[in-house]
């Protein structure tokens, strides 16, 4: 069926007439049927959604979430990034960042209408991931030319995402997992796997030095109370541990260790 031009008259339906789970969006009061996604399409939703949701600066991201900027408009981007909220129904307004996947059977006119509505209402960027033909992402911004990026390029969304997103991460499982791992490590305070390994090596050395101090003191019949033992074990200053280790070999009283 050929695409229909964007409706200019207001249709008869309102957002409050739709319930969660209904397979319809609304455009200016006109219903738009949203068909279920196939294997590739739905799998990409999950991959792209996880890449964006795990970004350290993202408070909330969702798949097929309904946004309503007006009483007759309800739009559900494939993926949306927005501020955190506690709504029990549709989300007011539009997301700052939206992602749409265009696969077989895509109604191009309807996609164009959806993008324009989102951008007109305040969405800063819409990324259109093309699953037919050469893999690429079209970046749409208000009143700017379309930017087309391919494998090897990165997408950025300043003020929304902290990290750049490789184009492949929106549809390739391995690339998506690499980005998710980076994001999750950063959320935990690490820049990379190597940073964790280095911390492990450093912690192991420091813990070994602390154990050596306590063993040496105990071997010389000098005992520390629980608080002082904890002070040594919790220390991460390697130079301080060295000083305590040298002192442990010569002090006559355990209390002198901290003098």
The total tally of domains equals 2
Mean pLDDT: 88
| CATH level-four homologous superfamily name of the largest domain | tt1808, chain A
Radius of gyration: 28 Å
- As an assembly, this protein is single chain
- How many E strands? 13
- Taken as a percent bin, the fraction of beta residues is 15-25%
- Unreliable segments of 5+ consecutive residues: 1-5
Query: Which structural category fits the helices and strands?
Result: alpha+beta
Query: What is the first-to-last residue Cα distance?
Result: 87 Å
Largest sheet, order of strands side by side? 3-6-8-9-10-11
Work out the helix count: 6
The CATH architecture of the largest domain can be given as: Alpha-Beta Complex
The gross shape turns out to be elongated
Major pleated sheet? 6 strands, mixed
Pfam families: Uma2
Domain Putative restriction endonuclease: 19-160
Protein name: Putative restriction endonuclease domain-containing protein
InterPro entries: Nuclease_put_TT1808, Restrct_endonuc-II-like, Uma2
Describe the overall structure.
The protein has 259 residues and is an alpha+beta fold. It has two domains: 15-187, Alpha-Beta Complex (tt1808, chain A), CATH 3.90.1570; 193-258. It contains six helices and 13 strands. The strands form four sheets. The protein has a six-stranded mixed β-sheet, sandwiched between helices. The chain has a three-stranded mixed β-sheet with strand order 5-4-7, covered by helices on one side. The protein has a two-stranded antiparallel sheet with strand order 1-2. A hairpin with a 2-residue loop joins strand 1 (24-27) and strand 2. The termini are far apart. Pfam families: Uma2.
